[in-house]
Amino acid sequence: MAIDLKKFVLRFIDEANGHLHIVKEGAFLLSSGENTDAQIGEMFRAAHTLKGGARMLKLQSIADVTHQLEEILSELRDKKLAPDQALGTLILQATDYISDQLAQLSASEGNNQLPPADVALCERLARASRGEMDAPSTELAPAPVENPALTMKLEAADSAVNQASSVRVKLEKLDDLINILGEVVASHDRLEQQVQNLVNLVPRLDQMNADQLRQQIQQFSRKLKEDFQAQNLQMYELYDVATTIRMLPVSMLFEPVSMQVRELAASLNKQVDCRILGGEVEIDRQLIDRLSEPLTHLLRNAIDHGIGTAAERAACGKSARGTITLTTQQDGRGILLRVEDDGRGLDYPAIRAKAVARGLVDADVVDQLSELECNELIFHPGFSTSKIVTELSGRGVGLDIVRKTIVTDLQGTLQVHSRPTQGTTFIIRLPISLAMMRILQFEQQNHLFGLAAQYVVEVLKYSRDDIRDIAGRPAIIRHNEFIPVISAAELLRINERPGSQNSQASAANSLLLIVIQNQFGKMAMLVDNLLDERNMMIKPLPKHMQQQALVSGMVLSQNNQLVSILQVPVLMEMAQKQGQTRTSVPKPEVRQNTWHVLIVDDSLNTREIEKNVLEAHGYQVTLAEDGFSGLQKARLTQFDAVLTDVEMPVMDGFSLTKALRAEENYQHIPIIIVTSRAKEEDRRRGIQVGADAYIAKGDFEQDSLIETLKMLLC
Q1: What pLDDT is attached to residue 449?
Q2: Which residues on neighbouring strands pair with residue 426, listed in sequence order?
Q3: Which H/E stretch holds residue 274?
Q4: Does the global pTM surpass 0.85?
């Protein structure tokens, strides 16, 4: 079945104007000498995305000019060109040309009948990218002449943009909305009648005795409460129905995907099929608009880096045709998207080598990076393992846009799972709507803050005596893992005032902790007071505040106070940096042949805490996230000792210990089990499978761990 490109062109016009606006703003800053590296990076990403969309839709004139524009921005980003007024002016001329092309597209209602690209403009841009700027023209531009045809084109362009911004609504949804509105109006009339009854009651108060007055007040209070509760339910029902009107099936996002996959694969001489599952799931129209760009980047990445050639796949015993699967499903209070390919998987050796080459990781520790840490590196701006720069890859742009859009802009989470030669999966979790979210509100030093409830694991009251000092940081032991504790006042840099609630809380033995998490770990945040948790309408930040990362939006509390919604991923990053600063003490001098220890635990927090403890005493540490991974690493590298948890996926700690003892070179190597399972039968089983020591996390003391290691190694 032939695909109608016209509707995709109309959507492209709307998106392209947004990207063009970013480039124009940056060009004005270039002309005035106020540009920043971040601004140039934004311009480059916008041009890159604009070019990719134009090529997908065969809009060659736009793609050609944008390609040359991208070359200039690439040179600026890499400091090979110096920004100046002439360069800014040339970029503005290119954006004006692209704007005219988009206007022509709109006037033709999406029919692709654009003339070839302006050759002279493309040549000027190409020379500028090589540092060969033309002399600025001194001729005055001719006075504008009113052009009726152009006016008609612009009007058609506005119409096309409005059409792209519209939503088709089913009649039954409108009927539901109108019915509930009728109930809300009737409920409002009842409340208005209650107010009138109160007004009529006031003149008769002096004529009533105490019993009559009490009876009237109770009757009025009961009736008012009933009417208020009814209207409250109607308002939430009204919101639910109103939001469904803006909900669209995710197939609206996935429809162009099969075409994009075929076009990209054909350009690389690859055979790729695209499977779409759950296309009927409905999501907010705003999410559909915002997900288009990151999804495109993930598809390009999968086809270019993930799916191999037919010959390469045949050598691995796979079919010549690769498969990309897009899956959507509702997941609790949000939406789960999976982008999965059956390709090569992530090239971890290449990722480690690139990290060293770019100075992100020291060469002497790069081999100790876990797969989770390598997965994080691929989202770093400018990071690419491609050996050459092509139209699709090698520029280091794409996955950083995916991370920023998903995590920062859409308040979601992004995870990566990869298996060598088997494929890579990107898992995206998003709220159902951006306008309304469930928010947990708390108070710190009389300041009000909120957290998206999707990041909140639990709220705890802990005794001060139960908080331990581990690796120079306070932490609690909860559900078989160490969770670092940090004060919200310290993290948010709120000065504590004498006599404040926090001062009193500091003296108290009971502490209030909010445990939050993202894909990289957990943190317990010490707060003064919890307010409530409810669905709240998110208000966007004013324009002058949108560049800061910590606050994503605002809500109004019940007493009309502004509450700042904090970005949990940013909070976690801030806490990690503070922890690194706090624990970066000089390491004691150790012998030349440093002991090499393998730590195996499925909790990232626990792995990092144990790693900090050992490294502070001069040990070299390698991490593994489960027993199977630990066994594989132990077979590749000879370790002097192994620390392992018990409860882990794939292979538990007892099985790992037994398997290691079956290996000839690990029959006499110290193995220490560190777990929350403190029962005597667990201890006996640990000894039976060959563990040399068994430490319960509830009794964990870092000095005791170090002494145990020293005793077993000597």
Answers
A1: 93
A2: 339, 416
A3: strand 272-277
A4: no
> What is d(CA 402, CA 414) in angstroms, rounded to the nearest whole number?
9
In a domain, 345, yes or no: yes
Shared domain check, 187 and 155: no
- CA–CA separation, 564 vs 550, rounded Å? 9
Residue 442: pLDDT band with limits 50, 70, 90: very high
b/e string for 666-690 if b means 16 or more Cβ within 10 A? beebbbbbbbbbeeeebbebbeebb
Contact 488/444 with Cβ under 8 angstroms?
Answer: yes
Task: Please tell me the predicted confidence (pLDDT) of residue 110.
Answer: 60
Question: Two tokens at 618?
Answer: 């001069």
Give the domain CATH number at 322. 3.30.565.10
Report, as an integer, the average pLDDT of 477-502.
Answer: 76
The CATH code of the domain that includes 653 is: 3.40.50.2300
Do 316 and 424 have their domain in common?
yes
Whether residue 482 is found in the same domain as residue 602: no
Decide which of 196, 229, 245 is a domain's last residue.
245
Same domain? For 445 and 560 the reply is yes
Residue 1 in this model has a pLDDT that exceeds 50: no
* Domain ranges, residue 387: 272-431
Q: Is 174 left (phi over 0), alpha (psi -120 to 50) or beta?
A: alpha
| Cβ-proximal residues to 271 (8 Å cutoff; 6+ apart), any chain | 265, 310, 320, 321, 322
Coil/strand/helix, residue 273: strand
596-600 and 620-624: which strand pairing? parallel
In whole angstroms, what is the distance from residue 581 CA to residue 577 CA? 6
Residue 254 lies in a domain: no
Cα separation, 309 vs 320, in Å, equals 7
Instruction: Measure the CA–CA gap between 317 and 700, rounded to whole angstroms.
Output: 48
Are the C-beta atoms of residues 525 and 491 closer than 8 Å to each other? yes
What's the pLDDT at 579? 65
At 320 the pLDDT is 86
Same domain, 21 and 155: yes
Please report which residue ranges of 302-367 form alpha helices under DSSP H. 310-315, 348-357
Domain boundary among 391, 407, 431: 431
- Residue 55 in tokens: 């090529």
Asked if residue 688 and residue 644 are part of one domain, the reply reads yes
Is residue 252 within 8 Å of residue 288, measured between CB atoms? yes
Residue 53 and residue 158 in one domain: yes
Question: Domain for residue 510, yes or no?
Answer: yes
Strands 322-331 and 272-277, how do they pair? parallel
Across the chain, what does the average pLDDT equal? 79
Pairwise CA distance, residues 483 & 470, whole Å: 10
Q: What is the mean pLDDT of residues 374-378?
A: 86
